[in-house]
Amino acid sequence: MADNATHSYISSFFLVGIPGLQAFHCWIGIPVCLLFALALLGNSVIIITIKIEPSLHLPMYFFLCMLAVNDMALVSSTAPKMLGIFWLDAHKFDFSICLAQMYFIHTFCIIESALLVAMAFDRYVAICIPLRYTTILTTPMVTKMGLAGVIRATFMVLPCPLLIKRLPYYTKYVINHAYCEHMAVVKLASANTLINRAYGISVALSVMVLDLGLIATSYIKILQAVFRLSSQNARSKALGTCAAHVCTLLVSYTPALFSFLTHRIGKKVPPSIHIIFASLYLLVPPTVNPLVYGVKTKQIRDRVASLFLPNKKISGN
């Protein structure tokens, strides 16, 4: 029995969607589709704008371009399957494809966090040591920082699907989620999952603590430098360059922290609420980020306006 059981893996999972709200799936699919379309459109506009506008060929905007590419990849790895569940009742998900989705979702999330750290460092150098900005954040350095974020995420998440592959799955195949989330998949295993749980939570905590710590350190240094400025106008201008990044941090980390905490310690939180926030964490930041930077960054705002309204005169100041 033991020998045969090791080979009795289930071939697919059944993704419920949002438990308790199945009757409203067709309606829930509408905002999901809108967020998906807006995320693809908004981030495409950001990438094209930065590419064709020479004045935006700066480290800050290169990081923003990387963030836009990552956001498009993240939302594309999540939204299509959600729409399949909500609109087409396509609940069945092949075991290997489910693990692939889980891997890419968590990888893109960690890359996003690394890019937010890089953007915080960019603001730190620009405000605290502006005279060395061009010598520190050269194009090769920006590229290396981006690659470091990708490599870190790739190897940190890789053990998760590999550890799951070694687990036996016999009868439990229903995932009470709208996508293949790591802990939701691990819970279905018919074996001890202590290693999987321990590794999953250690990765989440290490990324969150390290990245939030680096971001907090950057902004403490930035605030110290800003308050040393004698001119109120100079202070406002310096802090204004950080506004878009701070908004992005709030949009990215707030639902992520809520989702993480409710999944681990929020036993009384209804599953539907947890899954809604977990889904918003993957759909809202990619949609909001280009809007935030488009509104808060004058160069991007003016260039986008000139693309869509070519006859409109854009003010120089």
UniProtKB/TrEMBL annotation:
The keyword Transport does not apply. Putative odorant or sperm cell receptor. It is a multi-pass membrane protein. SUPFAM superfamilies: Family A G protein-coupled receptor-like. The lineage of its organism: Eukaryota, Metazoa, Chordata, Craniata, Vertebrata. Gene3D superfamilies: Rhodopsin 7-helix transmembrane proteins (1.20.1070.10). Keywords: Cell membrane, G-protein coupled receptor, Membrane, Olfaction, Receptor, Sensory transduction, Transducer, Transmembrane, Transmembrane helix. It comes from the Eukaryota. The chain crosses the membrane at residues 27-48, 60-79, 99-121, 142-164, 198-217, 238-261, 273-293. This is Olfactory receptor. One of its GO terms (molecular function) is G protein-coupled receptor activity. The gene is LOC119868847. InterPro entries: GPCR_Rhodpsn, GPCR_Rhodpsn_7TM, Olfact_rcpt, OR51/52/56-like. Residues 42-293 form the G-protein coupled receptors family 1 profile domain. It is found in: Cell membrane; Membrane. One of its GO terms (cellular component) is plasma membrane. Belongs to the G-protein coupled receptor 1 family.
